[in-house]
Amino acid sequence: MTKKLSLETELVHVDDTNTHNASITPAYMSATFKAKDLDEMGPYDYTRSGNPTRSALQNHLSKIMKAKHVYALNSGMAALDVIVRSLNPGDEVVAGDDLYGGTDRLLTYIKTFNHIKVGHYDTTNLELITSKITKDTKMVVLESPTNPLIKICDLKAIADHAHKQNPNCVVVFDNTMMTPLFMSPLELGADIQYESATKYLNGHHDIMAGVIATNSDELAKKIFFVINATGAGIAPFDSWLLLRGLKTLALRVERQQENAMKIAKWLESQNIKVRYPGLESHPQYELHKKQCKGTGAVLSFETGDVAVSKRIIAACELYSVTVSFGYVASLISLPCLMSHASISAETRKEREFPEDLIRLCAGIESADDLIEDLAQAFKVAGFR
Ligand SMILES: *Cc1c(COP(=O)(O)O)cnc(C)c1O
């Protein structure tokens, strides 16, 4: 077909040929592949270097992410680890100040042990962040919207500035929250887009996975070298599960977003301070709308009291108390004790991180049930 297909259609049609014409890409559970003869080794020899199920996944993601090169890895953090290995001691990295807790931990590691200079800044302040990106900046690490603070950065403006200062500056963008459905960071100027596929891309909380996408042949070569050298590539069965999860990405995320919007509006109607990019009250509502096609399904709100927040979370019956997001069921968490506990209390205070902040990740349930559950939890907790 020559007509350009929409992403919803592309997601469910996997191009793959296999020996027996199986309708679903098989999981090639083999660490090794036999050579036909010594002169013709074939495309696969060892799964650390390549596996047909991983290739089918990467080719599929390549269409979805509209990227020339895509690599699938063991986890989102393995993806970032592979990316930052291109840095050398003394190199300068400019990063956001509300990044995922694990990202913060890995950047602190390379700062401490690899002697790479890492600075964290408020990415919502365009003047500040661009003033920190100079001709000496080798890499910029961004995330938008962040969670749980739901901070939004102007990717195009920051990437344009970085490339003007230093054409070789690598702008890295974590697109876990928006997914390729709602945001195309490479089109907005990022050199590398990576995502934790543990979240929405897979959607069922049964595997860990990460994805890296780039249109640069040179960066792709370095990335593949590290993956092959370290064994960070995704395993065959996990590739197979991720291929399955991806087919329902659009259905899941659109419903989750619809639920998040209803919950956000209900919370706001209770005079609660809510952070969600779909609400006009969000300070960067317009900027987000300019660079994304959707607003996602993660929101956060404040109660004014950590003890009240803890009571609300304990009283919820439908929301699982867990880190992570992107699962088909709804989740609730207190980030300062959970996903963001790896950031010290002192740093959290410095970055104005409210300790009472509750994060909600909407699932695909009925929005009415989700709102009713929150209302009863508020009552039990003596809130509102
Ligand atoms: C979960 C997450 C990661 C890390 O991915 P893992 O698959 O858990 O290693 C990175 N960035 C964001 C925004 C995340 O939510």
Q: Strand content of the residues, in percent?
A: 5-15%
- Work out the number of β strands: 12
**Principal-axes shape call:** globular
Number of distinct helices: 14
Q: What does the radius of gyration come to? A: 21 Å
The kinds of small molecule bound in this structure are: pyridoxal-5'-phosphate
CATH class of the largest domain: Alpha Beta
CATH fold name of the largest domain: Aspartate Aminotransferase, domain 2
Major sheet: arrangement of strands: 1-7-6-5-4-2-3
Protein name: Cystathionine beta-lyase
Organism: Ogataea parapolymorpha (strain ATCC 26012 / BCRC 20466 / JCM 22074 / NRRL Y-7560 / DL-1)
Family: Belongs to the trans-sulfuration enzymes family.
GO molecular function: cysteine-S-conjugate beta-lyase activity; pyridoxal phosphate binding
Descriptive report:
This protein folds into 2 domains: 7-246, Aspartate Aminotransferase, domain 2 (3-Layer(aba) Sandwich), CATH 3.40.640; 250-381, Aspartate Aminotransferase, domain 1, CATH 3.90.1150.10. Helix 2 (52-64) runs parallel beside helix 9 and helix 12 (306-315) crosses helix 14. It is an alpha/beta fold and 384 residues long. Helices cover 38% and strands 14% of the residues. The protein has a 7-stranded mixed beta sheet with strand order 1-7-6-5-4-2-3, with helices on both faces. The chain has a 5-stranded mixed beta sheet with strand order 8-9-12-11-10, with helices on one face. It has helices spanning 7-12, 52-64, 76-84, 101-113, 126-132, 155-165, 179-182, 217-230, 236-246, 249-269, 285-291, 306-315, 345-350, 367-381, and strands at 69-73, 92-96, 117-121, 137-143, 170-174, 192-196, 210-214, 274-275, 298-301, 320-321, 331-333, 358-361. Pyridoxal-5'-phosphate is lined by residues 75-77, 100, 102-103, 143, 174, 176-177, 196, 198-199, 208, 210. One of its GO terms (molecular function) is cysteine-S-conjugate beta-lyase activity.
